[in-house]
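It is time I had a proper look at our fold encoding. Can you supply me with one protein entry, sequence and fold together? It will help me judge whether the discrete encoding reads sensibly. Leave the record below and I will have a look:
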Amino acid sequence: MADTISNTGLNEVGSVLRDLEKYGQSPWLDFIQRSFTEDGSLSKLVEEDGLRGVTSNPAIFEKAIGHGTEYDPQIRKLLEGEGLSPGELYEHLAIDDIRSACAVLDPVFEKTKGLDGYVSLEVSPYLAFDAHGTITEARRLWKAVGRPNLMIKIPGTVEGTGAIREAIADGINVNVTLLFSLDAYKAVLEAYISGLEARVARGEEISRISSVASFFVSRIDAKIDAEIDRRVAAGDPEAEALKAIRGKVAIANAKMAYQYYLEVRNSPRWKALAEKGANPQRLLWASTGTKDKAYSDVLYVEELIGPETVNTIPPATFDAYRDHGKSRASLTENVDQARHVMAEAERLGLGLDAITAKLVKDGCAAFSVSFDTLLTAVATKREAVLGDRLLRVSADLPPDVRDDVAAAEKDWSHSGGLRRIWKKDPSVWTNGPEAGWLNWLTVVQDRLWHIEELEVLARDVRSRGFKDILLLGMGGSSLGPEVLAETFGQREGWPKLHVLDSTDPQQVTAFEKAIDPKNTLFIVASKSGGTLEPNILFAHFWQVAGQALGKKPGDSFIAITDPGSHMQKVAEENGFWRIFYGDPKIGGRYSVLSNFGLVPAAASGIDVRKLLTVTRLMVESCDGSAPPSANPGAVLGLILGHAAHCFNRDKVTILASEGIASLGAWLEQLIAESTGKKGLGLIPIDEEELGTPDAYGTDRVFVDLLLGDDVPDSRLGALRAAGAPVVTIRLADKAQIGQAFFLFEFATAVAGAVLGIDPFDQPDVEFSKLETRKLTSAYAETGSLPPETPFAKDGPLSFYADAKNTEASGNKGDAVSILKALFDRVKPGDYVGLLAYIRRDQQTRDWAQSVRMELRDALKVATAAEFGPRFLHSTGQAYKGGPDSGVFLQVTATDAADVPVPGHGFSFSVVKAAQARGDFEVLAARGRRALRVHIDGPLEDGLKALETAIHKALAGA
């Protein structure tokens, strides 16, 4: 378009404009571009050649902004600050262009007393069927541009019509777009008039308000003529009558609209407004390019010239009209013939009403596609300018998965799924309670608004000289802080952050020995305050700290909890130093960027302002204004969701650079607890060493988390070649860990929508908690857990199961046979879960890793190595509520030493045993294939015996 304008001699252009103006038609230009305004070309058209207005649309801005480099300096400057979403960035660029054009056209505006001199800016096409959204955006854009000669473009839909009236009543100039039918035009003209009357009733000025009604022309003939041709070809008996009106309906339709305009113009109602200075709502002819080459290429310009109308001319039209266009007062010619054409169209049953209704819907859809293209171009520019300030997401997908994801991106674009997520619309998922759990979308900005309270905490912690911080929590309250502690390590001059999320008595003792209670800040993190583990850990360490300090240790304790919780009451009653509140509308696994993650981060010296500021760039990248194909969270979520839902690739296998390896455990909870329910879900596989392609089935998606310049594992190349999907996420540095948090939160929400589940509840976790409470209550009442009898015993190994799983073991008495029977139940596409309720340290982790790798290589299935009870608040949900593809070996042991829980009638060992038994009972109740093996005697000896038995079982002994 820019080339067409620049290659058209301005004198010749001017003659075109002046010819139209002679007949009372205001010529507007359907084009805007920064360079065209800045080099004086637009000004010359206005000053010398009579141009009287400018219109814009998403397609025009896409060509201006998305191609070339003239906007790049401003984009770089805008992104130097706090950052902007693609939608916000586009608006900054567009508003600057609109303001500049408004300045050029302001003399016309003043000279014509507000009749002409306008520049149009369109509300988001996504809002075409949203009355409230349209008027809200119209008001916002009107205020943001702040120019009296701005026109806000609003579509003439039923919903848009209501917004038009409100906008006019507010004093906003309106360009009504996408009008095809006379009835629609009558409705918007009524909206304009009633809006003016509302202002008059309030005693407000109306002489500086203007509106145009953009009546689309050629698209009607394209549809009508196609139907005529079809019927003629089929031998319709009315063939001659049909052919007689071919190519005439659109112009006749427009002339009828103009006749209605003249009728209203002469009505007493309008004259009363005109006496108060009202400007008429002029008809603006749009879509005047000829679609059928059998017609003149200037047909829809020549035949619609008349007074008090507007023609918005695209640059290409200048060439044709300059060459052979003929100007005359055509709009009022042959009006009776136009009525006859319309009557014939009605008589012949051409369905004009249905066609115009469909054209409105199609036009809105086309505008949305254009806006998507524009925002995709802006998002791409934004990403390029931000460079290493953003983590990078890339994917190598097999053709079938790639094509399916591409189709899904188009579907999500059409349905507005991402915008609906940001509007907290529960229909994205199950139309259930999801809207009440979505404040994680905005928590980053919220915490930045309140960053001072975290920075004050950090200064106070340091000034008090704490050497250690011990966080007591489970699941989302502990896994996020654990990632931050392990990723950033201990900061010089700051206390070391420890995270305890176990009821294993030896692990509790180990953490107690690792700290100096006199110089430790204890953080008790529990959203509800009713979770068993944080409460009993608090009871223990409250006693430990009190004994060390020789007084009540309240000023060494901080609580992080939701308002009104039991933990808040405990903290207040015990004089805690500080209480920080979570957001009740953020679930635990989505809470790492809330106070649950930020309070321990700030206390341990992590620069939380920087963390959040860096993270905000990813929040903006995942904004609803970023179309699915340019939205990293959406792309990742659609890959994971569709790989599982459509291709049975539901094992999300996580690989990670050493510096960010702890992210995998957090991802396990997020993915498993969010998606594993109703027999569906993604099964995260963390820390499983990469193998060769023959070690895997066809159920995997590999997610490779890389830090800095780390090189991907060379074995991934062979897996790609074998057709495995591989997603690579590269963090430029550790400060982008918050970006990874948000990226996966958003992706998980999208994947949940693909699966058709609520990604914010965890029903099966609650069942396990209930079973545990039953058992601990029984212990408190009787002094022992309910008795249980193994179905087999072999040396230090005792085997337990429900009746169904006992029967499946083959009634064997030796460990090898029992384990072999379990592993024989594993099928392709399954996974094996090793669930160890033992202390978690390097020695036991190495043992679990060794066993799980042998299982993987022998059975060719995915493996999970988990430690209880921490996995109960993590992958436990998917194991019980997700797909029935898990085969579980639960490992328990007699603890070498126990630790009593102060103020309770049980010990940590009892709690852990109750958790294991409750876990197994729920697995059994869900019909899972499961076996429990209990180790008596020294743990190391028992683990060695179990590993030997597993080895023999896999060897087929």
